[in-house]
Amino acid sequence: MNHVFYETFERHAHGEGIKGHSTHYCPGCGHGLVHKFVSEAIAELDIQDRTVAISPVGCSVFLYYYMDVGNQQAAHGRAPAVALGQKLARPDSIVISYQGDGDLASIGLAEIVSAAQLGAPITVIFINNTTYGMTGGQMAPTTLIGQVTATSPDGRTENMGQPMKVAEMIAGLDGPVYVERVALFDVAQRVKAKKAIKKAIQLQMDNKGFSFIEVLSECPVQLKLDPVKASQRVKEEMVPIFPLGVKKDISEEANIFEINRAPYEAETLLKEIGASSEASPRFAKGFPSHLNAEDIAIKFAGSGGDGAQTAALLLTRAGLQEGFDSTHIPSYGPESRGGTSYADVHIAKEEVLSPAAPMPDVFVAFNQPSLVKFAGTVAPGGIVLYDSTVIFEVPELPEGVKVYGVPFSEIAQNLGKRILKNVVCLGAFQAATQIFPEETFLEALRRGLKPKLHEINFKAFAEGAKAFREKYGK
């Protein structure tokens, strides 16, 4: 075998006919050639069973449909971080991060710079076609001056910044051992591209360090050129801006990069953060289906500094402790204090399918603007809980929604620390929803907050629950 492609590509026509042997790339696109060179290098180096390919968002997102190796998809721009996780967890694996210019040079710039500076032995293949190819042809960091894109309809100007020379930037860091820029526009360049890719992978096999290959590639569709003219454009317009060749090669004198697995072992990490691998005690008798049969959505909202995010995290921890799938997704305003901040929590009997809570079963408001903004989104028959210290008017709510006001801030102030209002809120939340027993929340507070704060937090929780019961008789 001289490549590691699947015999048929099941994504296309269920693997049948000519489509089952064709990639989804447009005619003249460089991705297909680079896939070929990567797969041939893997086969020639006999590392198919050790290789893990990381594909993020972009035209290369479906790499896993084509290469019969270990595959993992990463979030947009995050492939280097995922690649490092793979390498540190399994140092004997050969990890290849395959990214485009919008993904790597824009959205994931911090990730690639940090990974490169660390110098860990992974291989990065960077496809530079000077545009966001998959998402409509927007201007990328590598877009040429004068190039027309969806977001530079009159052409990129100097006021939009110069094209980013990524290979040179990576080569200027201390971590990488080998950086080269190659192209695909003729046979000679393709031979050099394949050699560079194979060398980058070989250096990883030798544990020499971080390697980075930038490939100048064609994108005929977004550039509105036929394949021949797209190749000419790479040679005539891109190469003068992005000169080909080796930008850094210290691989001969580079030392072996030793990966000490111990710091990344689960037990070591847990110990460092003061956590334990022991199972949490469970107090609930079952899933709280009185709130929702399968998946309970909760939203906390208030001003920045109200503690909505911490309350949401503690509730998420409580759900996990009880053995349910639980998620928390934050949304911050522009200010760390005073701006809008809300958090969505899901606690599911089996699996959370989406972390967002556009129609929460339970909504907790720490201030008036948050109540006005989100109260109308509560699911029919749901619950609204608010801080009656600062909220004096409740807007019209969907039919059947139950509304409870508890003075979180006043109770916290009486305890001597206004910052405790989010823990007071959790006490009232537990009493209002009966989502889990009080012991579940106390265990979450014990595990999620600093030990020296346990006593005051337990008291704040108890006061919140007491205030709700005294007012509403539950």
Given the structure, what is the number of helices? Answer: 15
- Reading the helices and strands in chain order gives HEEHEHHEHEHEHHEHEHEEEHEEHHHH
Helix content: 25-40%
Q: Please state the CA-atom Rg, rounded to the nearest Å.
A: 27 Å
Shape: elongated
From the helix content, strand content and strand pairing, which structural class follows? alpha/beta
Mean pLDDT: 92
Largest sheet: 7 strands, mixed
What is the topological layout?
Blueprint lengths: L30 H14 L6 E5 L14 E4 L5 H11 L4 E7 H7 L1 H10 L4 E6 L37 H6 L6 E6 L3 H19 L5 E6 L3 H4 L3 H12 L6 E5 L16 H7 L22 E9 L4 H14 L3 E8 L7 E9 L13 E4 L2 H7 L8 E5 L14 E5 L1 H7 L6 H13 L4 H11 L5 H19 L2
Parallel strand pairs: 1-2, 1-3, 3-4, 4-6, 5-6, 8-11, 11-12, 12-13
Antiparallel strand pairs: 5-7, 8-10, 9-10
Helix pairs in contact: 1-6, 3-4, 10-13, 10-14, 12-13, 13-15
Walk me through what this model shows:
Helix 1 crosses helix 6 (187-205), helix 3 (101-107) crosses helix 4 (109-118) and helix 10 crosses helix 14 (438-448). It is built from 15 helices and 13 strands. It is elongated, with a radius of gyration of 27 Å. Strand 5 (178-183), helix 6 (187-205) and strand 6 form a beta-alpha-beta unit. Strands 2-1-3-4-6-5-7 form a 7-stranded mixed β-sheet, with helices on both faces. The protein is of the alpha/beta class and 474 residues long.
